[in-house]
């Protein structure tokens, strides 16, 4: 038996940066996924190793099970129902396992993700030989939650082969977990995120696990269900950014101009609250949808203006804004800024021809474009008979 899991990426609809200073932010899942397939070896397979295949990069890593057992002696008593943080001792053992793989220098940024894989696998499945295959529709390091989607999909696939969750292995097609089991997936994914990012907020893995839309303020998360179907054009500028430096820059601007920045953060908070009200209000007819989309466009434009005043825009982001504005479309950066991705709302009545023209123009600038639905399902699994 083989299990496949898929977990969605995420976007920040409003409130990035300001959320650090007490404002409300709104995040949503998008229907671009990371996929993980897990096949635990049977005695007839004559396999005595743990293999990790990164399909998109044509990379494979492999460890003899004897090395895994040696590195994690405590995994002899696997407690998949009790998410645990990686100890300093285990971290050192993982570092040695990763070092043995001779990761190409250009791909060394993958090392934290491989470390998270080893910790989650050994903690949930112990010493079983297996093959894990990963592929993704999400660009890495662009602010769309690719690492969280990886951790969520991996945790879901690993837990599906334990007694810690209740799943119907005979179900055909994609299957959602119950709320209690989703909580467990989310907690394990957060442990993986900690391996990758050190001190993650937990927002990315929460959105990827549960799907839909959440608002968050001062550590409190509120799950929402959208009453309307939003579609976004996501433009990846392909410009990497230093999130820590951007966050620090906003904080320094706050110290220099405390009164003005307090008004900026307050305005962002109001935008996020109005956005959540629009998203959740009933939508009885097409006219209401059009009116709501027009309001959301205005809020996106205002939020982008405030982000510019925080100093987190970038020349490439401004290029995307100018391009989409030519077609009377509204855009804003999503995430840390300084590059990364830009969101453009695609109204329901917008013709496909216009969308094609916008994408062609953006791609001619060297950008990468995706269209994605907003606020869909969270992590799902599917059982398949191995071919």
TrEMBL record:
The Swiss-Prot or TrEMBL record describes its family as follows:
Belongs to the GHMP kinase family. Mevalonate kinase subfamily.
> InterPro entries given for it?
GHMP_kinase_C_dom, GHMP_kinase_C_sf, GHMP_kinase_N_dom, GHMP_knse_ATP-bd_CS, Mev_gal_kin, Ribosomal_Su5_D2-typ_SF, Ribsml_uS5_D2-typ_fold_subgr
Which pathway, per its entry? Isoprenoid biosynthesis; isopentenyl diphosphate biosynthesis via mevalonate pathway; isopentenyl diphosphate from (R)-mevalonate: step 1/3
Recite the UniProt keywords alphabetically.
ATP-binding, Cytoplasm, Kinase, Lipid biosynthesis, Lipid metabolism, Magnesium, Metal-binding, Nucleotide-binding, Steroid biosynthesis, Steroid metabolism, Sterol biosynthesis, Sterol metabolism, Transferase
Per the record, its GO cellular-component terms are:
cytosol
- Spell out the molecular function terms from Gene Ontology: ATP binding; metal ion binding; mevalonate kinase activity
According to the entry, every stretch annotated as the GHMP kinase C-terminal domain falls at: 295-346
Q: Where in the cell is it found?
A: Cytoplasm
- The answer on whether this UniProt entry bears the keyword Hydrolase reads no
Descriptive protein name: Mevalonate kinase
Q: Which species is the source of this protein?
A: Lupinus luteus (European yellow lupine)
The record places domain GHMP kinase N-terminal at 126-211
Q: Which reaction does it catalyse?
A: (R)-mevalonate + ATP = (R)-5-phosphomevalonate + ADP + H(+)
Main localization of the protein described in the UniProt heading: cytoplasm
**Enzyme Commission code(s) on record:** 2.7.1.36
List the Gene3D superfamilies: 3.30.230.10, GHMP kinase, C-terminal domain
> What GO biological process term is on the record, naming one?
isopentenyl diphosphate biosynthetic process, mevalonate pathway
Q: Which Pfam families match?
A: GHMP_kinases_C, GHMP_kinases_N
């Amino acid at each position: 038996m083989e299990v496949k899991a898929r977990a969605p990426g995420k976007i920040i609809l409003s409130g990035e940066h300001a959320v650090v200073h007490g404002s409300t932010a709104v995040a949503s899942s998008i229907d671009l996924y990371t996929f993980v397939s897990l096949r635990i070896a049977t005695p007839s397979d004559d396999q005595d190793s743990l293999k990790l295949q990164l399909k998109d990069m044509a990379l494979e890593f492999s460890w003899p099970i004897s090395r895994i057992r040696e590195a994690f002696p405590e995994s002899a008593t696997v407690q998949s129902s009790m998410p645990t943080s990686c100890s300093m001792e285990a971290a050192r053992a993982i570092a040695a396992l990763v070092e043995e793989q001779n990761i190409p220098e250009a791909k060394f940024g993958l090392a934290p993700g491989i470390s998270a894989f080893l910790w989650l696998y050994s903690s949930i499945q112990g010493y079983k030989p297996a093959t894990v295959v990963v592929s993704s529709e999400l660009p890495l390091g662009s602010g769309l939650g690719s690492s969280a989607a990886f951790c969520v999909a991996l945790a879901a696939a690993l837990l599906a082969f334990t007694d810690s969750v209740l799943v119907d292995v005979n179900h055909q097609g994609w299957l959602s977990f119950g709320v209690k089991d989703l909580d467990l997936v989310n907690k394990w994914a957060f442990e993986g995120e900690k391996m990758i990012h050190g001190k993650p907020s937990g927002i990315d893995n929460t959105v990827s696990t549960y799907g839909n839309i959440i608002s968050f303020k001062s550590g409190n998360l509120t799950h929402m269900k959208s009453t309307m179907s939003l579609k976004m054009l996501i433009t990846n500028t392909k410009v990497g950014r230093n999130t820590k430096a951007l966050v620090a820059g906003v904080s320094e601007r706050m110290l220099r101009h405390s009164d003005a920045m307090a008004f900026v953060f307050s305005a962002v908070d109001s935008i996020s609250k109005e956005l959540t009200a629009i998203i959740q209000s009933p939508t009885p007819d097409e006219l209401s949808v059009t009116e709501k989309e027009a309001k959301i466009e205005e809020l996106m434009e205002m939020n982008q203006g405030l982000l510019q005043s925080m100093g987190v825009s970038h020349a490439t982001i401004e290029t995307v804004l100018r391009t989409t504005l030519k077609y009377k479309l509204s855009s804003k950066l999503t995430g840390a800024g300084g590059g990364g991705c830009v969101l453009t709302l695609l109204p329901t009545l917008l013709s496909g021809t216009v969308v094609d023209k916008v994408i062609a123009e953006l791609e001619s600038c060297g950008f990468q474009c995706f269209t994605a639905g907003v606020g869909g399902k969270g992590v799902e699994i599917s059982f398949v008979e191995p071919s």
